[in-house]
Give the backbone structure.
Amino acid sequence: MATPLFIAHRGASEEAPENTLPAFQLAWQQGVDGIEGDFHLTRDGIIVCIHDPTTQRTAGKNLLVAETTLAELQQLDVGAWKGERWQGARIPTIDEVLATVPEGKRIFIEIKGGQAILPPLKVALAESGLAPEQIAIISLEAAVIAEAKRQLPHIKALWVTNFTTDEKRGTLSPSVEEIVATLKYIGGDGVDCCSHPAIDQPFIQTLRKAHKEIHIWTVNEVRTAKQYQKLGVDSVTSNLAGWLKQRLDNETDNHG
C-alpha cells in the first residue's frame, strides 16, 4: 500500500501564518512531500503568494492585491495575526517560494484570479530550476487548467473541485463522470477534490480507467487520511501534513 504524498496546505498553516516563507520552511523541516500555495498577480505584474483577493484577513488592512504594487504589499505584516512569534512575516513572491523547494519535493501552485498569471508564471518556473515533475498547477477554473496545459504542456495541471449536493435529487455535483468528461475536454492531468464520503473505490477506479490522477484536500485527521491511503490516492493536502505523514509512516513501519 503506497502512502500518498503529503502536501502542506499553504505551508504548515496550522502552526505558522499561511502562505508565508516561515510556513513553507516549517513544512519542509517537518518532512512533507510538497507544499501548496495560492498565487495572485499584483498591479505591477508580480506573482505573489496570498489566498484572498484582498489583504484584510491576514494583514488587517484592506488592499486589493490586483490593484496594489509589490512594494506596497511587502510593507504589510501577514504574520502577526498568527501570534507574536511570527510578527514581521511578509507576502512572498513566487520566486521566493519556489526557491524553498528542495530537490525531489513538490509544489502545488493554485492559481487565483484567472489566466493573466500564466505568462509570468511560465518565466518564473523556467528560472526556478525546478524539474517539471516537481510542479503541479491547480485551479478551480477549468478554463485556467486548459490554458495552463496549452502554455505549459510539460507541467501537470489539476482541476480543483468542490462538491455540492442536490437536496431534492440526492445527487452529487460534479459526478465522477462529469469530472472525467471535463478533464478530457480541458486536457487536465487529474483532479484535486475536496475530501468527501462520495470518494470511494468505484469513484477512484473510474478516474484511474481514464488515466487521471486523484488528489484530495484538506484532510487533518488520521482516520480520514488512512481511508484515502487505502483507496490509493496520489496526494493528500493537509494543514498538518508533516504530523499526518509521520503518523501514517509509523503505523506502516509497525505493521511492516
